[in-house]
Amino acid sequence: MSSMSLIRGINASVGYLAPRLVASRMRRAFMTPRNLPPRDWELPLLAQAERITLRFGLSALRWGKGPAVLLMHGWEGRPTQFAELIKALVQAGYSVFALDAPAHGRSPGREANVVLFARAMLEAASELPPLKAVIGHSMGGASALLATQLGLQAEAVVTIAAPGRILTMLRGFAQYMGLSAKAGAHFVRLVEEKAGMPAKQIDVAQYQLNMPGLIVHAVDDPKVPYSEAEAIHHAWFDSQLLRLEQGGHQRLLADPRLIGETLRLLESVGEAAVVPLTA
């Protein structure tokens, strides 16, 4: 029996007898990220960055000069995972600010969630020049969309492998961990209490998205289903959907098509019309 099967079995058994106990334990696990070190290929770009500290101790990396672009990585991610995109943005004449999310990297905290990610972006934006664009990967993409509903201003937004419906992701995690229906319901409520926002409100179908956007997702993403990209696109009238047949959840960050379409979107902001995606 694998360790994951054993954990699911224990959660199912104990969750039947003590659903609140199991839900509380899973809530802590769900909101406590590991701080994973950068890969070797990330180190050269990291060495070129300027480390800056924003209000409330938020840490960020900066590259280049020009109109500001704000990046937010995903859960247990790092700014330098955007390495190829960052290099292309700098070469195109943008200044890039990439946050360490709360409880990640050098930013303070032990726990995090999508609401804290979004509020961190709002705090960062208040200290940065007007934003040409905001780009987020995975939970960073979900937090970018949420941040726009909380007051974040940007000329364009790009989401990469992002979920659009947090409740779907919470239920999926509870099911994956083997929680009983009662324990799963307690888990969702505990996450909502900690985040300070009902999960059903963190749903792109309820958002007002008035800026141009690009949604990038790979069909073979093992963590966030491609259907999430379709849901975001359906709710966002001024968005373009770039479907990649391959790229998984991480590899697509270096895909030349993602980089090319992101640069094209930024160049097109302010024009009367946006040219359709290239074939």
Low-confidence stretches: 272-276
How many whole angstroms does the radius of gyration measure? 19 Å
Per CATH, the architecture of the largest domain is 3-Layer(aba) Sandwich
The level of helicity is 40-55%
**Order of helix and strand elements from N to C terminus:** HHHEEEHEHEHEHHEHEH
Q: What characteristic shape results from the CA principal axes?
A: globular
Count of extended strands? 8
Q: Roughly what is the average pLDDT, rounded to an integer?
A: 91
Straight-line distance between termini: 47 Å
Any idea of the CATH class of the largest domain?
A: Alpha Beta
Number of structural units classed as domains: 2
- Major beta sheet, strand line-up: 1-2-4-3-5-6-7-8
Count of alpha/pi helices:
10
CATH superfamily of the largest domain: Alpha/Beta hydrolase fold, catalytic domain
Strand content: 15-25%
Q: How would you sum up this structure, described in words?
A:
It is a single chain. By secondary structure, this protein is α/β, with parallel strands linked by helices. The chain has two domains: about 70 residues, no CATH class; about 190 residues, Alpha/Beta hydrolase fold, catalytic domain (Rossmann fold), CATH 3.40.50. Helices cover about 40% and strands about 15% of the residues. The chain is built from ten helices and eight strands. An eight-stranded mixed β-sheet has the order 1-2-4-3-5-6-7-8, with helices on both faces. Strand 7, helix 9 and strand 8 form a beta-alpha-beta unit. Helix 1 crosses helix 2, helix 5 packs across helix 6 and helix 7 crosses helix 8. The longest helix is centred in the N-terminal third of the chain and has 15 residues.
